[in-house]
Amino acid sequence: MTAVLFDFSGTLFRVETTESWLRAVLTGTGHRLPEPELTRLARALEEAGALPGGTAPKEVPADLAGPWAVRDESARQHRAAYTGLSRRVPLPDPALHDALYERHMTPAAWTPYPDAPEVLRTLRERGIGVGVVSNIGWDPRPVFRAHGLDRYVDTYVLSYEHGVQKPDPRLFAVACEALGADPRRVVMVGDSRAADGGAAALGCRVHFVDHLPVNRRPDALLPVLDLVV
């Protein structure tokens, strides 16, 4: 294998909990709520699927079904879809919905999985190209930089920058071309069989990991190193 492609959310990084997300925004905007109310609102936001990278919506409202289906094809659609879900939950101040969306794009909202630094560093040492291929509506490069991992990534192929979202094989093809790699000698690592499995159409090998909290997934990325020996 000459290159490895990684998904971002749920693969290399995990977003904070919905309660942490809401608490940070409330604190940053000077809002104070009793703990039971904060917990209730966090639970409602989680059920709505309002946190990008978090729990999927239990049900997408009919009026958001169209935007939701193509949410990762542009920054505008991504914001509209997620703030639309957030607004299903009444908050103390309507401005909090946009503040929540802004929060999720900050490095503080994301934590790398424990083995991500070791795996990325080892791939670099072995001369293996690394790309990040993500269905996303914003630029995660600052997250990688803040956590010291950008130095190990050779290319980022982001759905909103190309107007195409996984599993469309065109997104994986762009990454392979950027790395100068034959897709048949590339591994795609991701947490979504539906989305990341699209790389198989190009001939890539696909390796899946579980989308779990950071403290429950300490070493799921390490087997990737055995695939590129």
From TrEMBL:
Pfam families xref list: Hydrolase (PF00702)
Alphabetized GO MF terms: hydrolase activity
UniProt KW DNA damage keyword: no
The keyword Hydrolase belongs to this UniProt entry's keyword annotation: yes
SUPFAM superfamilies found in the cross-reference section: HAD-like
InterPro entries: HAD-like_sf, HAD-SF_hydro_IA, HAD_sf
Keywords assigned by UniProt, alphabetized: Hydrolase
PANTHER family reported for this sequence: HALOACID DEHALOGENASE-LIKE HYDROLASE (HAD) SUPERFAMILY PROTEIN (PTHR46649:SF4), PTHR46649
Protein name (Swiss-Prot/TrEMBL): HAD-IA family hydrolase
